[in-house]
Amino acid sequence: MSDTITVFKGDGIGPEITDAVLKILDAAGAGLTYEIFSVGEAEYEACGQLIPEEGFASFEKTRVLLKSPITTPVGKGFRSLNVMMRKKYDLYANIRPARSNSAIKTPFENVDIVMFRENTEDLYAGVEEMINEETAHSIKIITRKCSKRIIKDAFEYAVRQGRKKVTCVHKANIMKLSDGLFRDVFYEVSREYPQIEAEDKIVDNAAMQLVMRPQQFDVIVTENLYGDILSDLTSGLIGGLGLLPSSNLGCGYAMFEAVHGSAPDIAGKGIANPTAFLWSACMMLEHMGKSECAAKIRQAVDRVLEEGKVKTPDLGGTATTAEYQDAVIQHL
Ligand code: NAI
Question: 291: which residues sit within 8 A by CB, 6+ positions away?
């Protein structure tokens, strides 16, 4: 695999956290070359396109994209670029690991949940229409093919990582056909993995159980919308959105991004927490066979968090993004 990656600097806090993460990657000796592009709202206003053609061409060449968040205006206007990227490159597996860090105090201890979110269908398929002026219509699409591949990935991951259990989250009691299909495929696939416990939970119960006793969960596999919502919930269990990384994997393409958005409320203030994006970059290094470098960065972050002297405001500190970045670099 080449050491050149594509980088999309997005909106809001995107450019700030991208600068911090690239500096840390360089200081850690990741040995990467970057093809960097501005994408999102600002790029649209300047050039009339959300992602420049050269940005797509770069990703099609490097096959590895480190993408910072992009603003998607609510309501009418352009469709989510995030959804578009996932569909265009069939990045069907959105993997979101939420792990407690002993240095970050939350009401929940020993949380270690890896969420596998199906990334290409469900209500995100974008099949919507106005039936008349009073009624809008969105179609939920669930296919056997897409359910099977994400569920298989979740079980394969469980085997590889020595995990014990995979939980399927659905609402098959109400959406008997679509969610029923997802659940049925889950149990079909689970028969190939007798060593891994397979269970299912209805999404509302899963949400309550995640807050009451998150330690009972190990690997979760779920549909697009439930995965989107529940993974923000799991970020809350471990200390917030500034701490949840993700990878989006498909056939031959890999995109790495923080779970959080462009955080317009703190954009430009230099106080964004770059940890989620940095950990996404660590997942990228592991994907590229640079696990040692990823481990070095993770250890440096752990030491900074344990010392507790340099924390961004979302974690109760007063440090700027740049001060945090420098502290991580000092501990490499
Ligand atoms: P958000 O995740 O941007 O922010 C939610 C809250 O978390 C805010 O109070 C924000 O300040 C805080 N937060 C988020 N990341 C943080 C960080 N790294 N450090 C410190 N605090 C952080 O969610 P919101 O406000 O709903 O969405 C803003 C925009 O981002 C929307 O246009 C949305 O569509 C877009 N978005 C983009 C995503 C992506 O590009 N992958 C993912 C989620 C949302």
Answer: 285
Domain edges within the chain: 1-97+239-332, 123-224
Tell me the per-residue pLDDT of 27-71, one tens digit each, with 9 for 90 and over. 999 999 999 999 988 888 888 888 999 999 999 999 999 999 998
Predicted local distance difference test score (pLDDT) of residue 48? 82
Please tell me the distance from the alpha carbon of residue 294 to that of residue 297, in angstroms, as a whole number.
5
d(CA 5, CA 35): 6
Task: Check: pTM over 0.90? Answer yes or no.
Answer: yes
Report CA(155)–ligand 1 centroid distance (Å). Answer: 30
Nearest protein Cα to ligand 1, atom 41: 69
Q: Which CATH superfamily is domain 123-224 in?
A: Response regulator (3.40.50.2300)
Report how far residue 332's alpha carbon sits from residue 243's, in angstroms, rounded to the nearest whole number.
19
Nearest CA residue ID for atom 16, ligand 1 = 242
The encoded tokens of residue 88 equal: 């265009």
Q: What is the set of active-site residues?
A: 124, 171, 204, 228, 232
The pLDDT value given to residue 78: 60
Residues 122-141 have pLDDT tens digits of: 998 888 999 999 999 999 99
List Cα–Cα distances, 51 to 47, 48, 221, 267, in angstroms: 9, 9, 31, 20
Indicate which residue's Cα is closest to atom 13 of ligand 1: 263
CB of 262 closer than 6 A to ligand 1?
Answer: yes
CA of 138 to the centre of ligand 1 (A): 24
Give the whole-angstrom CA distance, residue 221 versus residue 115.
6
**Tens digits of per-residue pLDDT, 162-195?**
999 999 999 999 999 999 999 999 999 999 999 9
Residue 76 has what pLDDT?
55
Q: Report the topology of domain 1-97+239-332.
A: Isopropylmalate Dehydrogenase (3.40.718)
Rg value, the chain, Cα: 20
Given the DSSP bridges, would you call strands 4-9 and 33-38 parallel, antiparallel or unpaired?
A: parallel
Residue 158: which pLDDT band, with cuts at 50, 70 and 90?
Answer: very high
